Amino acid sequence: MIRLPATQAAITAPLVASNTSFPGVPIGRSETDGRPFRLSPVLVDHRELPATNSLALGGLGSGKSTTDKVWLRREILHHNHQAVVIDSFGEDTAAGEWAALTRSLGGLVVEAGTFTLNPCSLEFGTEVREQLIRSLIAAAEPAALTLQSAHALQHALNSPKADRLGGLVDALVNPEDGRWPAEQLAAWGVDVAIALSRYTEGSLRGLFDGPDASLPPTDLPIVSFDFSSLDRNSPAIPALMAAITCWVEQVWLRQSTAVHRHLVLEEAWQILLSPATAELIQRLLKNSRKAALSLKVIMHTLSDLGDGRAQDLAKLCEIAHVGRLGPEEAAIVGAILGLPAWAIKKIPTLAPGQAVWKVGPDFVDVIQTIINEDEARLTDTSTRRRKAQQVLAADDEEAAVTLDKEAVPEEVYEYEEYEEPTTDDGLDFDLPPNVIDTLYTAPQLDYRHHAVLQAAGEGRFNEASDLAALGEREDITAHGINSPQAKAWLITRAEVAELSGNRDQAAQLRATVARMGNNDGAAWWEQTNDIAAQGHPAPPEPEPEPAAGDQPRPGARRRRTGLYVAAIATLALASAVVWQKSDDDDKRQQQQEQAAAYKGVSATDLNIDGVKTETLASWSKDGRSVILSAWVDSDENAKFVRIDSGDQTAKEVVQPLKEGQAPMPIRLEVKVPVTDHYQAVRLTVAVGGSTWKEGIRPPHRTIEYRPDRTAIDAETGKPLKQAYSHL
What we know:
Layout: E1 26-30, E2 36-38, E3 54-57, H1 64-79, E4 82-87, H2 99-104, E5 108-111, H3 126-140, H4 147-157, H5 165-173, H6 182-188, H7 190-200, E6 222-226, H8 236-255, E7 261-265, H9 268-272, H10 275-286, E8 293-299, H11 307-316, E9 319-322, H12 327-337, H13 341-346, E10 354-359, E11 363-371, H14 373-379, H15 383-392, E12 402-403, H16 436-439, H17 443-457, H18 461-479, H19 484-499, H20 503-515, H21 531-535, H22 556-597, E13 601-608, E14 611-619, E15 625-632, E16 640-645, E17 648-653, E18 666-673, E19 681-688, E20 700-706, E21 710-713
Parallel strand pairs: 3-8, 3-9, 4-6, 4-7, 5-6, 7-8, 11-12
Antiparallel strand pairs: 1-2, 1-11, 9-10, 10-11, 13-14, 14-15, 15-18, 16-17, 16-19, 19-20, 20-21
Helix pairs in contact: 3-7, 3-8, 4-5, 5-7, 8-10, 17-18, 17-19, 18-19, 19-20
């Protein structure tokens, strides 16, 4: 805990990024403070990052695909990971976006139409084969599957002829007798046979049926399924995606020997909106940790999925990086991902290759992806656009991401020394000279002050305030509350307040520095080294002694006595002021300690009726409300969940699943009013487990949540352990 004395106001502004550093391969550099950014999700402690799935969002040319390609390439080269890519869109018909990178790593590019994937392979289990064939039928003729046709399909899959798709169609058209006569089975199977014949004789011929139909190898570093030659509206795409995801789940994950695997979904909205594949992908996302699998979901924006699917996807991805989007899309994405306001405002202004990264519940920062020339060549997806620009204009478009030859050497990833910002920074006011070097030894700290003042000079005052609060908090933690580093941040905050027109706050901050003994609040570039002028004034001149013949004037003693009385009265008044100030200081100290301990959140896990229930209390920024939430995973088999706080109630009774419907987690929340940021709140959570029956009152617990990230059991008074929450 940081204790703030009464001489300095408490720092309550939200942090823009976490001090956390992650293990793993380098990705780029923080735009906030210049630090290198590294991340290999599988190497992060599971308590900090429960799942390793990632979500990449951004408009065309934002660099989202380039970032994921470079990230995956480094994982394969340095950690021997394996990957499967579903590449449904390329910039030309010759090859998909991932083809060059895949071939450079010694992988296999499976191009649609040149490789025949056998969905009837005996390497798939019986249930998987049926599910896969159902997916192909649903992609071609959704109405063909009925209760009777499903039975005919099951009967045909048991035929010896059903080891190829063509043989399966024959078994449907000419079935053998079973529980029902062959004539009845043939009539029931007509619709599904017609649907599957599109893959054996119709427009989709060659994708799943042929003399060389087989399955891809599972021992390559990367396999890319390239659909770029297909029409984007073709039913072949969801059909192929269904077949590939089944192969991934049932064959590749079981036979792969890599320590960790990656499944990349390029243009993922096509996969996640297809009934043939959505359930499979959701299952892989949910079980990724057990399967040693990371899914990398790449798409333009979450609004393509609709609110429900977008929220479900965001819950299952602990990592997200968001490139440039329009303001409206940025607001939607920010709300779903839970990004801070400064990050949402930053998204529309990001340059190509920059992204707002969110890792786990706390880390948020702006990262610039850094690649070398080889990686730029392998990940380039703008050749056609660049050729057109070369014809129309002499100047080429700027590179989509920063190129840095020294950023990623072949053997070890090391970053070059930090480079000071250029003098041409576009600011319309004078920045102080590089005097931070007189206070600090770390050159990147100079950049932090520079970034704050640059943001303020461009009118982004909220962002500048957030960045200044981050730097101040870091330096107080590292150097102390009264250190020169901390004082310098007060002056920077005063400059920001001055630029924003808040002169009262600027004067207050400078007065705080003056009370701390720092040249009366002068900016650090205006401070003087004249020690005598600051702390060693010249001794006063002695008063002249009266002449020997001088006599005291009448009334002098009386005036001197009056001065004594006035001095005593002044001393008494000063004592009262000191006592009052002491009380005020104590109150301020308590308030500041309370502010320093304030987290605005409290989360704890409960076990009620054998069901693990994650709960969370989150205080609003204005201190007027608290959102109380409960989350139960679908694996817990809860039948009933209810939460109550005051007069607010939310509940859910789980209904039996319909055929083909996947179980979903339960998430409930209520919003209750509070009088200030520090008010504790209570929540009653009732849960009915697998044996609960309607009409029976379920077990419940009442918890008191406090904004300093603590919680107690309201019935026993015992403190409860804080936990990470999916909420």
